[in-house]
Amino acid sequence: MLMRIYRKIFPYISSIIFFALLVCCSGCKSAPPVPPGVRPTPPVEAPSPEIAVEPLPGLLVREDRCLDNLDAVGRQAIATGATPGAVILVGYRGVVAYRRAFGHRTLVPHMTPMTPGVIFDLASLTKVVATTTAIMQLADQGRLYLNAPAARYWPQFAAQGKGPITIRQLLTHTSGLRADVNPRLSWSGYDGALAAIAADTPVNHPGTAYHYSDANFIVLGEIVRRVSGLSLDGYCTQKIFRPLGLHHTFFRPRRDQAALIAPTDLRWGEVHDPTAYRMGGVAGHAGLFSTADDLAVFAQMLLSGGEYKGRRLLSRTAVAAMITPQVVPGNASRRGLGWDMRSPFSRAFTASFPSGSFGHTGFTGTSIWIDPDSKTFLIILTNRLHPNGRGQVKTLRTNAAAAVAAALRLGRPAASYGSKGASTMTGRGQSDFPDRVRTGIEVLASQGFAPLVGKTIGLITNHTGVDGTGRPTRLLLHQAPGVRLRVIFSPEHGLGGDLDAKVSSGQDPATGLPVRSLYGEVKRPTPGMLQGLDALVYDVQDVGVRFYTYITTLAYCMEAAAALDLDFYILDRPNPITAAVVQGPVLAPGLRSFVGYHPLPIRYGLTVGELARLFNRENKLGVKLHVVPMANYGRQMWYDQTGLPWVNPSPNLRSLTQAILYPGVALVESANVSVGRGTDTPFEIIGAPWINGARLTRYLGGRQIAGVAFEPTEFIPRTNRCRGQRCEGIRLRLTDRDTLDSPLLGIELAAALHRLYPARFQLDRNLGMIGSQNVLAAIKNGVDPVEIRRGWQHDLDNFICQRKRYLLY
Q: What region holds the Peptidoglycan beta-N-acetylmuramidase NamZ C-terminal domain (predicted)?
């Protein structure tokens, strides 16, 4: 709050100072007085010198004339008053292809020219250049773990419910911490800021929402200090800046360096960020100063897989992990570890650079953007806040990124991270960071595919069958020495995972192999489809819910393999909503169907490999089953704790938040209501033309359902149920995924709709999803949903006992 107030009023205060200085200077040869706390500029008679150091040591400067169009971009930014000055640098395939300065370093009290070696306040670039790099170095060394709670390294941080917050969540802004140090708390100094954060309560439950936060990186900076025994600035100087030869990158500039620094507003050589300033100039989120030349060396180190001039700063696996998309719940943003890949802050770059590129921006007008595939980086440093805080560089960033992309032809078809498609990675080295989960396909690959060598196989897979870097399992098996992949089988939604109808068979364009649909004319492989095969391999990402059809396809394929005495291999994958929680009514006898193969509860708490073991024994299938287990997996993990990139398992499950809500909201979707299919937020909204949203919200709010909150909403589905109709209803906001009983939520929704709209809501149509005639009858009879849950507990306890025999983790 203080920062927002400061940023609103400072332009007006600094404008008054600026014009007062102009008045004082009118008709006077002497320099105007310098405001208190502002360091004086060097005499204008002697232009400020270029930094006296060889630019870009180890990087060849060879300017490319095709980038001359950037000159017009830079000049336009100066001419329009967007910023007094700028330095633009482009690196391309190991050389500096463009390096020029525009405009002025200072306007007040004297005008001095901008030069390429000027030092800038990097603002939030501190988060990635300093803090993220330090954290990843310590993780590389095994001194901290990304999935570990931050409180393991800073015990006081656990107060006020912050104990579960992990290092990974801090890096990805999903910790739930507020944007800054709590403005309602009085504090001063570095220790005061830490005490205020430790005493604060999260604004969101950890892992449930993306909320950009400086506090996240203040915490990470303190963890660097506690783990390494060095202050953040001391650590970065010794372990990052000095090894790279970054002699003009530092916190807390010395007074004699002011002549080489571009001022922010009217401050000179002191960090602009108010919180970092109050903390003494060193913080994990802001405070770093540097030049375009030094940042170019840093960017080249990342493009070289963590190494520069023979010095290794980071392992290749750590670099790959940093730029692998992480889960950002309930938000279209995409972030790596620390780094921005797509967010409102980076639209200027993502509009022109291809998917898979990454970077960061800073409030003072700084930015860096890197494309690993083309080995390109764009650095833009400006003093946009000087002298009155009013400059803006969005247009400069947008135009510069477009000019670079056009000149170097960076635009190309690339993997989609959008809500409509699968999230994949292309052109990457494997992101096998030490504590990341390795899926079954990655474990199999590490074994040289030995169990499959010499076998002719069929593969059951779809778009979710990828390794940790996005490489499709079908390509890995097709190229594996000694493995003969002959046919691919696809479940519901097709090989690409984007169809919401019956799926035809066809051919895989990537391998040229035939693709046999198991959601078209047939739903299980016929003997003819399996002729000549020695084994079937299954690699599909499930969502951990009884009525998701992928697990029925699994069971049907196991039956077919058993009938022909084929080996059956499961390449195991995480249960996205944890394999530790078991909830909901168990499917009743007589209700088996394609959305209910086995008497399972709604959340069965098993991985797909464990589930196959249960199917094989409990249904006496007799298939020769082999499960290739994951490495580094813990059954309590939510998907965003695995280190794996999120891949939409089907067209209408586009985030982990939606997958968590799905076991509840889907219990009513067979009736005459929309659950958001055909909108941008499926399974986060429920409505119908006949629902009063405010009334339903009040009723459900009064039920005090743990882990979720409700608010009224209106929407018009583009497709599916209620298509083109204005619907009123509710929006569900996940507040605590660990306390949410999602099947109970579904029963609460069904009971509310039946109670409020008994003549309109078609409750009986939900029997197949609920899976219990007794539960349906209890809803009709007005039994309280909490009592209904007690009624299914006996069967649930029996299943939990049965389940224990099949656990692998």
A: 660-809
